[in-house]
């Protein structure tokens, strides 16, 4: 089997979540805009998919406390993408 024929481990893991398309859309948006804040719709779609397939129960995740982040720009970004502030689909 050549290197080209081997599945990429990252893509294999993302495909297993059931949210490959949502992840791809989020990554493309981030690449195209250069700013996560411009990808809130894609981020919400990915988060909704993640919860739909119960990946939050399968994978250990940690909610970030924005107050624990020293950089104010990063803290503001985290505050912008909390579930309460994400737009509906």
UniProtKB/TrEMBL annotation:
Residues 64-89 are annotated as: Disordered. Keywords: Disulfide bond. Residues 19-52 form the CHCH domain. GO terms for cellular component: mitochondrial intermembrane space. One of its GO terms (biological process) is mitochondrial respiratory chain complex IV assembly. It comes from the Eukaryota. PROSITE patterns: CHCH. InterPro entries: CHCH (IPR010625), Coa4-like (IPR039870). This is Coa4 protein.
């Amino acid at each position: 089997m050549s290197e080209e024929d081997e599945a990429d481990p990252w893509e294999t893991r993302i495909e297993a979540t059931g949210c490959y398309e949502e992840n791809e859309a989020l990554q493309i948006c981030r690449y195209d805009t250069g700013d996560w804040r411009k990808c809130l719709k894609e981020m919400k779609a990915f988060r909704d998919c993640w919860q739909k397939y119960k990946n939050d129960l399968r994978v250990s995740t940690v909610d970030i406390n924005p107050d624990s982040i020293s950089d104010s720009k990063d803290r503001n970004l985290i505050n912008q993408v909390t579930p309460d502030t994400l737009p509906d689909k």
